[in-house]
């Protein structure tokens, strides 16, 4: 299991990040590896998102575990292939478990991914997110307002909670700076999902606007990033880009027969389960931003 979860057969390091064909092939390789390896993803996520997060991971072939008790972390976290931390329904009781799990992941050289939901909406939430950021997550994925709040380190007086008041392109400079500071990957969700390692900046253009009308889709794509990073931990930049694209492709396919947010939610899960190589290669829309 461990060997499967840490290798992509036939995928050698590449020197170009400009080819659409390259990204499509990489996206399919990551999805296929998740299906083959079924990586165990520990999810310390918010109460609103647990159902969709678990179903998205299962549909893609990963194995979700909603383990958030501080008493269980020393025994359980070492068994996982990646950790996903989401602060959506944060309370003082949950923060120690999040920090402990992140530290265990770091100590064991396991990837972990942070979703700083509504980071700038309150002093308590911002401080918690900054504490977690100091534990150097492998990937941070948030909307533009969340990434800007982390970069500035200040509460956003115009915050709308989990809803962004900025476009993803507004946060490119903040994302690059955060990536350079933490040494990790920073992803900014939006009409174009932006991913940076502090130098490279790539945009994934897959997805549909109606995803904004379904709760926990952002949380779920961050969990998918954790699964993709679990099967390619040496290349978290590529894994993040392809996870965002695959999720967006599934949304596009699900939207073809959706009548509204509720049916799109169901179709999204079905589309993730049924994605094939041809669909991924045909629909992947990824390219350099600069």
From TrEMBL:
Which keywords does UniProt give here?
ATP-binding, Kinase, Magnesium, Metal-binding, Nucleotide-binding, Thiamine biosynthesis, Transferase
Statement: the UniProt record of this protein carries the keyword DNA damage: no
Q: Using the UniProt record, name the top-level EC class of this enzyme in a single word.
A: transferase
Q: Which cofactor does it need?
A: Mg(2+)
**Which pathway does the database say it acts in?**
Cofactor biosynthesis; thiamine diphosphate biosynthesis; 4-methyl-5-(2-phosphoethyl)-thiazole from 5-(2-hydroxyethyl)-4-methylthiazole: step 1/1
InterPro entries linked to this entry: Hyethyz_kinase (IPR000417), Ribokinase-like (IPR029056)
Q: What is its EC number?
A: 2.7.1.50
Per its UniProt entry, which superkingdom is the organism in? Eukaryota
A biological-process GO annotation: thiamine salvage
Example GO molecular function: hydroxyethylthiazole kinase activity
Keyword Lyase among UniProt keywords: no
Q: Which Pfam families match?
A: HK (PF02110)
Q: Which residues form the signal peptide?
A: none
Kindly state which reaction or reactions the protein catalyses.
5-(2-hydroxyethyl)-4-methylthiazole + ATP = 4-methyl-5-(2-phosphooxyethyl)-thiazole + ADP + H(+)
Similarity annotation: Belongs to the Thz kinase family.
Q: What does this protein do?
A: Thiazole kinase involved in thiamine salvage pathway.
In Swiss-Prot or TrEMBL terms, this protein is called: Hydroxyethylthiazole kinase
What organism does the UniProt record list as the source? Castilleja foliolosa
